[in-house]
Every structure is written in C-alpha cells, then in structure tokens.
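Following the same procedure, backbone shapes were mapped to integers, as reproduced here:
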Amino acid sequence: MRKSITITFLMASISLCCTGYAVYADKTWYGMNFDYPPESDIRFSVSDSDECGTFTMQFFNNDRFRWVPTVGMNEHGLFSSLQYQYPMIEGTPVPSQDQLYIYQLFIAALNDCYSIDEVKCIIDSVELINLYDLTLHALIADPSGSALIAEAGEGENLITAITGDWIVMTNFPNAAFINTPPAEIFGVGDERYRRALAHIEENYNSFSLPEAIGTLEAAVNNHAEWGTKASMVFDPLERTVYVGIDGDFQRIWKVSLYEGMIETWSGFVKYRSAPVSRNGITVPELRTWK
C-alpha cells in the first residue's frame, strides 16, 4: 500500500442501519443514507489537495471525543463506505500481521486505491477480520463498473462482487444471499434493500441525478431514533457530492472535490457557498442555510 494506515478507528456502533449503492448507467452513481441517533454530530469534509481532495462524511463519537469517517470518495472517483452488519460475528481483539480489520480496508481503499483491482490486491494479501465488539461490512466501487462488498468470514474473506449494473448494501450479510431473489432475502435492512433495488430497476433506463437521489429517498429510514441523518449522492466523473440532511430531499447541497467548496443546489431561497476543509462543515451549520 502506498500510504500507511494511521487513522485509529473507534469501536463505536457505526451505522446501525444505513443503505448504500453503486449504479452503472449512462454515468456512474454512488449513494448512501447514513442513519444514526440524533445526539451525534455529523460533518462533511474535503481533504487538502492541489488538484482534487477526498470527500468524507464523519460522525462525532461522543464516548471517544473523535470524528469517525464512514463513507467517502477519493480524488480518483473511488467510493468506499462502512455499514453495520447484523447479526454480529465474533471478532478478533488483537490482529496478527496478516489480518486486516474491515474498517482498515475501508480506509486503505480511500487512501491508496485507484480501482477495485487495487482493492482486490489488498484483500488477497490479508485475512479480513471483525473488531471484537463490532461487525462491519464495506461497499467499495470504482468509476469503471467494478464494485464489491467485503465481509469477514470464519477464516476466509467473503466477497460479493457486482454481477450486473448495480449493487446495494444494507445490514444483512450479502455473502449469505448471493443469487437469492430479493423477496427471499431476510435480515436487518431487507426492506430498505428491496425498496432501493426496486427504484433502481424501475428507473435504470433513465438513471441520472434525480433517480440517484430518489433511490436514497426510497430507502430512507424513518425510525424515531435511528433515522436517516445524512444522504449523499456521489458523481465520480465530476468529482461532486450532493448532500441532504435530516431525511429532507428537497434541500440539497453540492460539494466540489476540485474546488473544496459547498454550495446550495436546490430548495433554497438564496444562493450561498462556503469552503470545505479537512475540518469540515457540520450539519448544525448547514441547518442555518435558508
């Protein structure tokens, strides 16, 4: 790997719900709904770069007093996301040299990879494992049409590769339902999975930004506690991210990775923009934009 993994991941409950996807239509689109309790702050950041930065969405871990990234797109248009997987699998408290936590794969993909082929090289060289008290899986996709879901099995890596033009991940283990009809899939997030999948299938022939946003709206989580707090559509060709907050799909912001700027895109009374740095802009700040 070209960079060492120096980010410390915090053993907190990440994304008890959440829905992510990658769609390859006339253009490539990625999306994620981040579902989390309201007491945790959320921010959107763009890393410093001379040309094009890396976008990440992070939540604040109130127990550890740190920001934790859960989804992002790097300067090459590669998408990487983490979501909670249920049921939990017994994890490994202390990894060996040839073992890699799922969250480390998520970070390595964003930091080090141009393509899924490079991600596969990492996966093939290690045994993927879970944290001892937290089970995660990762959806990783590149602009060319390659995508996979990475999960840790018992002594083996469980990789679900895209087989058509789209792939969707919620919270059940995807590897357990390969080639299973959607109606027969059961587990946490199965209904959100079916809603997202149905919206993609019904709109695939005309799939563009409105349909990409609509897929997240179809899979929105209205749970009183674990509701959708942030929604993001990623355009890897333009290196832009469209952001919604609080399950509201009428007011949308646009983030440019090239410019390191966020601006109002739709649903606002007046235009406004602001720089987005590594320290990010928070959801409470965005709520003040009218």
User: Anything to note?
Assistant: Residues 190-203 form the longest helix (14 residues). The radius of gyration is 18 Å.
